[in-house]
Amino acid sequence: MPINMKWIILLIETSTLEKNTEEEDNGNEMIEYFTDSLDEVVYSIIDPTLLNPNVALKQEQKVEIISQLYKKGIFQLKGAVSQVAELLNIFEPSVCRYLKMIDNNKK
Predict the structure, then answer these.
(1) Exposure on the CB side of residue 72, measured as CA atoms within 13 A
(2) What residue stretches are annotated with the Transcriptional regulator DauR-like HTH domain (predicted)?
(3) Is residue 23 a part of any domain in this protein?
(4) What pTM does this model have?
């Protein structure tokens, strides 16, 4: 099913907390977002004051924002890199570089 930017349905896997070995793990929780724009999803995840174009973010803050969006699966959507770059007032290669840093830190 192709992604229609008019109605983004974003299924997000959220990690479950480690459970005691005696308890049963029932998997990942799925969250659905129904919205007209990717921007709305990003604003629902990230504090909108950090996305204000007049706020100068440090590199660590940008990496943290991109990491949060990465964990929520935002970058699985077509066009997400360019839209997030625009929201953070940075260039697309910077978003890609931060994603690579995040991915390398996971390993």
Answers:
(1) 20
(2) 42-100
(3) yes
(4) 0.67
